[in-house]
What does this fold into?
Amino acid sequence: MSTRRPTKVAGHYEGKIDSWDVVNEAFEWDGSRRQSNLQRQLGNGWIEDAFRTAKAADPKAKLCYNDYGTDGINAKSDAIYRMVQDFRARGVPIDCAGFQSHLASNSNLSTYRQNLQRFADLGVHVQITELDVAGSGTAQANVYRQVTQACLAVARCNGITVWGVTDKYSWLAQDTPLLFNGSYQKKEAYGAVLAALNSAAS
It folds into this structure.
């Protein structure tokens, strides 16, 4: 079960995909393993098996682990850090870690950049993979700015993906979390992200 899906999907698109999320959301908030069907049936080795199988199926693609609730240094991110550290030490093929970053205007980002950096220091790329920020106005814009600046400050942070385009179709539509409002108009948060990117470029 741990090998069939990576082999079928990654093998089908071999050489056409830059990177794969090989495993997604396998840890609980306290750092323990989520009791998914794979975990229950195959034990702790299933994540390693999935990465090794994906590497065999698509050798040139970058292989990533992705999770939520890892926006700072906490029990969950610590557990994932230890896994990545162990994989790198033993030659398990892992190339990047994804941080979903479903945030709010009052999110504590005091260790956000530090957390990205410690993963990057292991030799993997870091990516912000599902960014949205519940809220509005300047408070929301400031969080988007801080996240963008944190990625720009970490040399191995090579991607920011906002989790949707318009608030109208967001999974958190009532929280207006995206860069465009329900009428596809740019919000203050859009300007904050653009300013951060332009500042880095100049």
Observations:
- The mean pLDDT is 93.
